[in-house]
Specification:
Elements: H1 9-25, H2 28-43, E1 52-56, H3 62-70, E2 75-80, H4 83-93, E3 97-99, E4 112-118, H5 128-138, E5 139-150, H6 157-166, H7 180-186, E6 191-199, H8 202-208, H9 210-213, H10 220-234, E7 245-252
Parallel strand pairs: 1-2, 1-4, 2-3, 4-5
Antiparallel strand pairs: 5-7, 6-7
Amino acid sequence: MEVSTKPNPQKAHYEAIHDAYEAHYYDAPSMAYRDRFIYGPLVKRLDLSEASLADLACGSGHNSAAARRYFPGIRTTGYDISEAACHDYVARTGRPAHVMDLTVLQEPQEVHDAALVIGGLHHCIADLGVTLRNVARMVRPGGHFLMMEPNDDFLLSVVRRIWYRRDRWFEADSEAALKHDEIAAQAAPYFTPERVTYFGGPAFYLILNSLIMRVPLGAKPALQHALFPLEQAYNLLPGRKPFAAFLAVWRRTDTAA
């Protein structure tokens, strides 16, 4: 796999915040949130029991470990811009991982049955078109691309953009929330959307994004019990504007990338 030598501010940013990010985004309440509101809804009606899965922006491998709970026979491979993340991925999952900058055109060594990215595409705005082409090259025709990303159709997106610029936990020059329909149009030569779901209320911020909300880790278990029923009800609201994020499942078309 080609490794880019082009400087990428996301790499330095992620490695600088790695320990705090790991503590807040993968503790027990955050993983419970992922299971209930992200992983479960994403994989419903999909059979990935014997699939090969590319875990993009894989981090330390928590998403791949979750995929194996849902589909014990799945074969995961990690891809991340950070060498340290790839090392941790291999240690956690026992599966291979490759250093890869998705914003630089790649010639993949392996084609997978599916690809998964959880909050990784919005870190690739430096060249989202190239990123989507790279993903297409990694997924076989008929395979699936599963994602969770922040929703730029959200009512409070203007506030979020200001927040990105002023908060040290973000790298505002190289990350931004996404509009599903816009990125689907960019990916139209390679993927066809099968379903998109908008979600994300109080628990999305106070549990999953406790790091940026400065919620103490010790407070999260009690908040989880109070907020999960509220989150379930909130997610029943219509439309896309009330919601902080979206889930999408796309099918790879039989076209060259």
